Predict the structure.
Amino acid sequence: MIATLQQYLSFPFVRYALIVGVLIALCSSLLGVTLVLKRFSFIGDGLSHVAFGAMAIAAVLRLSNSLLFVMPVTVLCAVLLLRAGKRAKLKGDAAIAMLSVGAMAVGYLLLNLFSTSTNVSGDVCSTLFGSTSILTLTRAEVWLCAGLSVAVVALFALFYNRIFAVTFDEDFGRAVGTRVEACNLLIAVVTAVIIVLAMNLVGSLLISALIIFPALSAMRLFRSFLGVTLCSAAVSVACALAGMLVSIVGGTPVGATIVAVNIVAYFLFALVARLK
Amino acid sequence: MSLITCQDLTLGYEGEAILEGLSFSVNAGDYLCIVGENGSGKSTLMRTMLGLQKPMRGSIAFGDGLREKELGYLPQQTAVQRDFPATVWEIVLSGCQSRLGRRPFYTRADRALAERSLERMGIAPLRRRCYRELSGGQQQRVLLARALCATQKLLLLDEPVSGLDPRVTAEMYELIERLNRRDGVTVVMISHDVAAAARYATHILHIGGKGTFFGTADAYRESPLGQRFLADADGAKGGAEA
């Protein structure tokens, strides 16, 4: 088995995939804690559907670099979703459901009507669940992904104290003059960036799992915000690495395997928490 | 010049007024209790004073060297907070957020301030404990310590004793009184406990359908409105004990 792994690791595209996977897992876990605690999980879920729709449009338009189209569209929707979410009483959640399901339906429709590929269902499946696409990354894509990941981690570190403040108590923040709306906007935009990045790894349907599972696992064991955040990052990276290695050796789908490892980790953490 | 001057305020939601023509002022060193029935607009008034929502009419002016954001706020707890993974230290330190300015991280001076606030509230030994595992009274002390990091001048407290048992409630009232009398912190507090309000506060603002009163606590006890409400409160207490 180790020999098989060594053989695979000698290919550059496998190494690229591992690097990108780890970076994406790290980014996605950082904001997970905040999204879960702020009850913003719905934004992550809604955005992943929007990203699918945007990806479909990019495919139909035959854009050479779909990221340049998908990223701005998803960021824009993140801003819209945040606005809608605040007016939850005015059927904000229904608006989000409409936007996300609508984006999926239109995306699938477009792919079927105008697709240039001979294997539409294969394309759709890989966009939804992720698949071999991470193994076909070019060197440029790896660098782009690495750059964006570093930017996300740096932003998170610089705004860590403010993110904690608006996660724990928005009203107090507003009362003492913190720019809460700007912080929320930053959180939504960074979430959109992460989701578009993570689509390469696990596909749009499974992204929410990558964001939420590590945070929930960490919250089982740790009692400080910093502890939860660091643990969540560690769990996410470990699960992504383990999932990718298993999928390489066992030939299982990458995204689903990573999520499965995350599920196992969650129950392990829950068990340890109960025994403590 | 008063710390806060409210002129002819009309408050409400979505075009519907719940409070009209309200005028009062808070001077440095005052201990003002806002009382009134549920739904009379006490929390709305406090949110307006904090700048969290706009008055429909009228004005709120800050004076006496107090800038608008230079106040401490103790909100009613939300469901999110009750189950929040954070230590006492992390929460109290977040009270220094307005001192961050453009800096990303807290300075040594900020930490020292948080440290002092912990000690003033007598919760320094709890610093590493998780907020959600504390008792109700301890949680309120943590939020009060956080508010003290944000201000040395003015505290706005929204029902700080709700849900606490009588002994802890008394401790909390004494703590707030000490901040006011000894440290000279101006206190504005919403309370549904009229009797305690009349006992501890220097001034009372009574709002609601059955009339409005603003004046000193002594004058409130003498006023017809005050006497009626204090008698009601006594009656309710007697009924509960019987």
